[in-house]
Amino acid sequence: MARMNGRDAADRTSGAARPDPDEAAAAERAAVGRGTTSHAREMGRFFLVKLVILALINALGLFVVFSAWQVGHWGVLAAMVVILVVANWVYFSRRMIAGKYLFPGLVFLLVFQLFTIAFTAYISFTNYGTGHNASREDAVAANLAQNENRVPDSPSYPLTVVSGPDGELGFAIIDDGAVLVGTAEQAFADAPDASITDGDVTEVPGYDVLTFGEVLEQQNEITSLRVGFDDVDEGSIRTQDGSTGYLHRSVLTYDEATGTITDTDTGVVYTDNGEGSFQAEDGSTLLVGWRVGVGFENFTKMFTDSRLSGPFLSVLVWTFAFAFLSVATTFFLGLFFAIAFNHPAVRGRRVIRSLLILPYAFPGILAGLVWAGLLNRRFGFINQVLLGGAEIPWLTDPWLAKLSIIGVNLWLGFPYMFIITTGALQAISSDVYEAAKIDGARAGRVFRSITLPLLMISVAPLLIASFAFNFNNFNLIYFVTEGGPNFPGSPIAVGATDILISLVYSVAFESGTQQFGLASAMAIMIFIMVGLISWLGFRQTRKLEEVL
Amino acid sequence: MRRSIVITAAVGLTMALAACGGGTGSGEEETTAGAEETTEDGGSAGTLTIWADEFRAAALTDIVAQFEQDKGVTVEIVEKNFDDIRPEFITQAPTGEGPDIIVGAHDWSGELVTNGLVSPVELGDVAAEFAEVAVNAFTYEGQVYGVPYGIENVALVRNNALASDTPATFDELIAQGQASGAEYPVLIQMGEEGDAFHMYPLQTSFGAPVFATDDTGSYIPELALGGDGGTAFAEYLASIGQAGSGVLDTAITSDIAREAFANGESPYMITGPWNIAPFTDAGLDVSVLPIPSAGGQPAAPFVGVQGFYISSYSENAILANEFLVNYAATEDVQVALYETGDRIPALTTAAEAVSDDPIVAGFVAAGEIGVPMPSLPQMNAVWEFWGVTEANLVSGVATDPAAAWATMVENIQGAVDAA
């Protein structure tokens, strides 16, 4: 009795303890020096460990909160505070027993699954991509900077950064041997008493000359400083390195109040067109745009853009065919081997089984690359050595390429099916086989009526998961054929072995400019499709269990 | 067991969130804080962050040390895979956590400028010290966006053991190659996806440049690769492809071409300076020559220029400019960068310093009639259609070369319009 309680208490030290009425056990524990009261018992070694770990977590969490606060990232800050509060509550509360087990998993679900999905969904409703890469503010600054041109044939001026009596920054430049000094507010004026040493201004009355170190501390202020001349149209002096000034003229000006950009040379006004660009009346836009929401445009584009909708159907059909054939071929080959090597008469079963699962241990990407090399039309091992120099276009003929993809995936995938079916076969009771034998069933009938239905109960969910995995098996396609051979003359670079996910990649990243928004929208569509298929599949598998 | 899950979960979560928090901040506060700390000594401030690939990073070490010593600042070189620099810069720069300077190719400029990610660089008087083509390549819509360091273009590389004098036309060159008894008369890498870059000299020799140019020689987004010249080139490709004389083959990838040439299986190869080292390592005696014309007009290769960009989100613009204009644009640095990748220095004096090498001189001569690769953002789409169509012509999949070429022009036009 006492021994049992002792074990009980040890199991409970994780914080879920209830008062132990057994005095003898308490006395025993007191004897080994852990304390005598029930409360003190919880303050044992394990509690201390918990305390230390939670303290560490809290310290790390607070560090994150602090860094997030420092860079003004409020979303991360709020999420971290909530997680910390919940974590402390769950692990110090006596009642949250289930929560102690579920909390880490839930946090992972939240951060790595739900957040990712939500963020992808958010991106899919924006025009994020080339030309719409950052915020409006950044776009304004970039457009202005790109259109501030050096005045043609203007000289370069030796320049020194100075600061005025109120600390305002200014430039002192040497123009034809004379020193001119000015600030943002005050145009360049002669400074006859300034001194020049080795071609640099070293002293200007009324101003402090900044050292290089001081210049570096105010880099943003200095590079954005413009000092003009009396004649405003002449342009203004700016510097990029703090030691040379160039005369620049800004072609564009931004009007904060109206939010428009005006071209001062032509008078054209560019206004915000609501699609993340500055647009003139004639429809021309400034080069740099920004990220805005575009509603369902990315989703409708898949069906309305003729360049996309054309190859979309054939890719969709091949995706389903590929995923289905991959599962079917690997499953039946795996099952065949499993049954064959499950037979007691086979010698050396363990060795053979170990060898058979080798491809499973091989990294998929590497296998893809190796197979691509083996199947090369002219130099591949298969054509050159095995087939005696036959130039069979394994990867460049549309149908052979499809066959090669299925073949390579068969090689990669059958060991997995072999492992799971071997396990499932061994779980089938030998009683049913005996009964079948007594009833006089032949091997084919036994397989169809007993082995396969019983196998399906445990394996069907895995087959659905395998289907979902192959539906998005980007690595295989990309590393074996890159989706090729391309459809000749197709308006986007899509090939005969492209599946949906590799189509997304080639449309969004390889066909011209990067389109994160469109890629996210297509990824969401695929996600919904796979989710739907898996849900339907899992519903069907329940029916399989009726054979029991 | 349960605890270990909790620990792992909590640590993982905190780290993930810390990464999120760190990755999306503006970074402004941090820099200011750093600047305040160093106000007292007045001599040092700022940390300059440079993204470079492994070769460039190694070549920059000396000059960076010099710069740190001169200016009392810290420079951090972050090594990245060359192909990762552009996409990572595009997504990270707007968060304020990107680098101050990146090392990249000039044809990125269109995309970077369209996204507002890079600042114009005023080269000032230094501009004249660079090869004109290098500065032009980094010019986008009238502004210079980078400090160039290396120029590269393809040329005809000859294995002197198999051929000694090179004829003036490509047809004669093929005939000579076939007569030499080598396995391949001439090697041009392409692969199943095609390689329009290496094929471009042949294309220009038919008078079909990819884009039209304005009076100043800069590209305008108007396709010029169609027309009679384009059709003639398409037919020529098919005639020397797998269904024709078999000179070109889509199975020849860059690796296969390099190895075959290094093994002495071909007298000629059209390739760039990056492949010379494997050839000389293999003990070949090679010469570098201009590419003979196939269509009667000069065979002008694309010129690619490598250089440094300054992020428009940089908090250290002055430091970055100082480093690029006054340190990176010096002869020593440009020669050091040349030695890592064999690209011809963009700085004229540095190029002269290394031009005793006949191979360098050969590439320079071949590149003299070259034109910069267009840097319009739509080029990604152009490359894809272009390469695949050429591969289809060579493999014989496209049975009607003129029609296949016309479809390609149409598709490229569609991609350019859609972007």
Name of the CATH first level of the largest domain in chain B: Alpha Beta
Major sheet description of chain B? 7 strands, mixed
Report strand % of chain A: 5-15%
CATH superfamily of the largest domain in chain B: Periplasmic binding protein-like II
CATH second-level architecture of the largest domain in chain A: Orthogonal Bundle
According to CATH, what is the topology of the largest domain in chain B?
D-Maltodextrin-Binding Protein, domain 2
Strand content of chain B: 15-25%
Give the beta-strand count of chain A.
Answer: 15
State the secondary-structure class of chain B. Answer: alpha/beta
The name of the CATH architecture of the largest domain in chain B is: 3-Layer(aba) Sandwich
Count of domains of chain B: 2
Specify the number of helices of chain B: 17
Specify the oligomeric state. Answer: heterodimer
- For the termini of chain A, the CA-CA separation is 43 Å
Runs of chain A with pLDDT <50, length 5+?
1-40
Q: CATH H-level name of the largest domain in chain A... which superfamily?
A: MetI-like
- How many domains of chain A? 3
Average pLDDT level of chain A: 84
Largest interface: A-B, 90 and 93 residues
Pfam families (chain B): SBP_bac_8
Family (chain B): Belongs to the bacterial solute-binding protein 1 family.
Keywords (chain B): Signal, Sugar transport, Transport
Protein name (chain B): Maltose ABC transporter substrate-binding protein
